[in-house]
Amino acid sequence: MNDIQNQRDHRRIEINKVGVKNIRYPITVLDKVKGIQHTVANVNMYVDLPHRFKGTHMSRFVEILNKYKGNIAIKNFSKILSEVKSKLRAKTAHLEVEFSYFIEKEAPVTRSKSLMEYVCRFTGSSNDKDDFYVGIVVPITTVCPCSKEISEFGAHNQRSVVTVNLRFKKFIWIEDIIRIVEECASCDLYSILKRPDEKFVTEKAYEKPMFVEDVVREVAKRLKKDRNITWFTVESENFESIHNHSAYAFVERNITE
Q1: Which of 28, 39, 167, 185 is most buried, judging by how many CB atoms fall within 10 Å of its CB?
Q2: What DSSP character marks residue 91?
Q3: Do the beta carbons of residue 227 and residue 244 sit within 8 Å?
């Protein structure tokens, strides 16, 4: 049978990334409390394509993914990327894995248990050398310091989303990064709150007002102290409750800075 993908292309345009996107796939990730956690990921896999080839072999991406079923872990990213480059005869390879991670939390007063969802991303690429980083999205709540200062009654608050990306020397726990972010918020979020819990978190947030700038600075301050981390970005978006826009702040640092 003719291999159309291997036929010559005469437009002389290289493609930076070509591959498969949004593969829904079961994976297993490490859980600090329970050992492992089973979840479902969205997987993207790409390679570069030299100008002389008409197309890449899409099925080979899925074949490699199936080969590593149950082992799509941080420690195997380099191995998977190397195999992708070899099987598809590419110079560069990229692997992106996004998944929901669940942590059981207790409400602060009644101790009612519920699961909180956090979106996590493993992103790796291989060119002349390998690169890898972890991304974690943490929902929080913030109270506006300005509103508290100028208002006679209360202050406006909002839900916020903090996204942290990290490069590091050794293994890190997802839970540890989530804890850092939540401790830098006015208050963290819960899936279940009874009335005593709601009173507690409302008052806790009111006593710790945070601008979006405060949040990213506090998280960055904590991350800079960790010698295992070599690079990070922190971004926070407040979904404002009294404005028709979001407030946003972003920090990027190499740990040597």
Answers
A1: 185
A2: S
A3: no
What pTM does this model have?
Answer: 0.91
Report the pLDDT value the prediction gives residue 54, as an integer from 0 to 100.
Answer: 76
DSSP for 12-28 reads ---EEEEEEEEEEEEEE
Query: Per-residue pLDDT for 125 more than 90?
Result: yes
Q: CB–CB of 202/237 below 8 Å? A: no
Distance between CA atoms of 173 and 31, rounded to whole angstroms? 8
Q: How many CB atoms neighbour CB 50 within 10 A? A: 12
Partners of 186 in beta bridges:
none
**DSSP 3-state percent helix, strand, coil across the chain (nearest 5):** 25, 45, 30
Q: What is the pLDDT of residue 50?
A: 79
Residue with the larger pLDDT of the pair 8 and 198: 198
Instruction: State residue 70's pLDDT score.
Output: 77
Strand, coil or helix: 236:
strand
Asked if residues 158 and 146 have their Cβ atoms less than 8 Å apart, the reply is no
Domain total for the chain? 2
Quick check: 120 and 42 in contact, CB under 8 A? no
Residue 188 sits in a domain whose CATH number is: 3.10.270.10
Residue 257 has pLDDT above 60, yes or no: no
Q: What is the DSSP letter of 74?
A: G
Report whether 230 contacts 253 (CB < 8 A): no
Range of the domain at 21: 1-106
pLDDT in tens, 166-214: 999 999 999 999 999 999 999 999 999 999 999 999 999 999 999 999 9
